[in-house]
């Protein structure tokens, strides 16, 4: 940490994919790798433009994250140019976390070694499942063997901070299959594990299938049961839960995501990327061609922005902090919003008795309320 300076996170959206997953509502495009050079030129212009218009002298770079899409579709030479410009935006912190998402089977050992040499020190592998029929349902183009061989390559490239992502509550998934997936991932001993419940988002193939009656999602009680069991199993396996969907060996929590959840300023680059900086949220154009054209014409690919009001900030603090294991700091909340939540929401707290608790000055969701985090937060926000 640098004295008198605030942390800053950077997010870079790489929208290119080899296939579109049935559940994905992130902005991504398939079969457009020939547009990577134009995308790279545009994003370098965006970084340069933000460096000119923003005063970042009061910040230090804490985390950088390459997400997508599929960042590993960028070759190391292209990524090198981006990293160089990004690291010049502000003074680097002494222990920066630079993370990157990759898909199984899509990043060679040679590429991984090159990424490591660029300063990338955290890899997140989108494994999602080890069951062939579930991977097919989700339109994943890898198999379980690719997940294992990619994990081995990541280790051989020298990465010592690796995360594996899994999805549960997939139609057709049994409890036995979910248990098996978790056991196999734990056997690899990554430093971090993310588990996400499959949700139906508008605009996705999954949404169309469900609406048409072709696919039936698992019952909520089954979904909640899988979540509770998975969280218990991972905790017992040496992966304490530090956020609703995330587990890590102590000291390997994802700092980039923790920064999102604790209100740290961040800047986003690339089509559809979001920024949150000095009380203002902004977002980029959600179309690669329009984004690149606008950047070449005006120097910015922005689509809009909003100023965060006190009411919005209050609700966001409740929503994000209650996702964290450590919970919502009552003293911090009262200081920011001049509100004693224990008094103003007394009735809501009584409604969720047994699912909420006050622990050392923090309002936390108990095990009985884990699967109901969103509902509890929503009640307190209203």
Q: How many runs of DSSP E, i.e. beta strands? A: 17
Number of helices: 15
CATH fold-level topology of the largest domain: TIM Barrel
What portion of the residues fall into strands of 2 or more residues? Answer: 15-25%
Calculate the mean pLDDT score and round it. 92
Q: According to CATH, what is the class of the largest domain?
A: Alpha Beta
The main β sheet shows up as: 9 strands, mixed
**Strand adjacency order, main sheet:** 9-10-8-7-6-5-4-1-11
Architecture per CATH nomenclature, i.e. the level-2 architecture of the largest domain: Alpha-Beta Barrel
Protein structure class: alpha/beta
Helix content: 40-55%
The tally of structural domains comes to 2
Which regions contain 5 or more consecutive residues with pLDDT less than 50? none
The CATH H-level homologous superfamily of the largest domain: Aldolase class I
The N- and C-terminal alpha carbons lie at a distance of: 36 Å
Basic shape: globular
What Rg do the Cα atoms give?
A: 21 Å
